[in-house]
Amino acid sequence: MHMGKRKETKTGRVILIAAFLYSLLSVWECSGAAADRKMETRFNAAQGKLNKNTIEKIHRRIGGRESFTFIVLGDNRGAGRQFKTVLEQAGAHKPDFIIHTGDFTDCGKNEEYRHIIELCSRGEIPVVFCPGNHDLRGNGAQNFKQFFGRLNFVFDINGRYRFICINNNNKKGNPVITKKRRWRYENDRGIEDKSMGMIEEALHAEKKHFIIMHIPPPVGQFRFKAFTWNAASFLGLLRQKAPLISRVFCGHIHGYGEARYGDVRCVVTGGAGAPLQIGRDGIVNRFHYVLVTVQQDRVSHKLCFVD
After folding, report:
1. Which of 83, 169, 298, 303 fits as disulfide partner to 133, beta carbons 3.0 to 4.6 Å?
2. Edge-to-edge strands of the sheet including 264-269?
């Protein structure tokens, strides 16, 4: 009699433990932990290859078409509501791909990278990411390489158009002397020497080029927030190779602006969600993105405001 009660008690405990574990599993799944685990697996599988995989997807989408469209946008600093609206309205154009000019995170944290990747992976339109200064804060450079790959990279579309994506957020300390005759360092942001060499090598005589970088060059109304390290060399290259360069696309300034350096058009598009630039001549402080249309040898772009 006692043995039967013990067996029933033991069986009851097993059932209770099983029920408890099942409830924990349900809470785990409902909390999104299961989805996070799937996302973790996907991140690990594509480690350091997200941009490479995206570019391969772009090639498959465009195929042998001579005409294509793409969106350029930048500076959202997170996966907030405004950025989601920008993506939604940009996607309505059915572009072949999107290029992000940088500052898709605020502090360059690993979890920020994951959030933005997860958000952009929900849509059908592939997104190529270039680094901004906020994305490289702290361990940001390591995180960018971990998820996307190289900070500087080049890819071609149809053998006729080349995209040169350059990290110009590098810092170079310059010793200066203050009024009180004390030494201190001021950081110049810009392009490393080896990256300048990469741009020169990538410019091909039989291709048209789009140069993508986060911080704009010191041209026109962009001078107040432009890069300085190797800026003179970069401008010299624009002047020398102008017939080969279709556009220079940048972000960093939270608004929209266009400026010319000789025959080269420089476009700042930094209105994807971060707080907008205070009103300034030549800078439109509204949320927006840029729609670029390539039709054989002709390139045009259109400023699109976000409601």
Report:
1. 169
2. 153-157, 161-166, 208-213, 245-250, 264-269, 256-261
Mean pLDDT check: name the lowest of 40-44, 86-90, 112-116, 161-165: 40-44
Exposure of 249 in the CB half-sphere (CA atoms within 13 A): 31
Please provide the average confidence, as pLDDT, over all residues in the chain. 87
Q: For the whole model, what pTM was predicted?
A: 0.83
Q: Count helices and strands (H / E) in the chain.
A: 8, 13
CATH topology of domain 47-305: Purple Acid Phosphatase; chain A, domain 2 (3.60.21)
Rounded Cα distance, 112 and 129, in Å:
14
Residue 238 has pLDDT above 50, yes or no: yes
H or E element at residue 301:
strand 298-305
Of residues 49, 74, 55, the one with CA closest to residue 132: 74
CA 304 – CA 307 distance, rounded (Å): 10
pLDDT average, residue stretch 25-41:
43
Q: Which residue in 198, 253, 178, 247 sits closest to 221, CA to CA?
A: 253
Average pLDDT over residues 234-243: 98
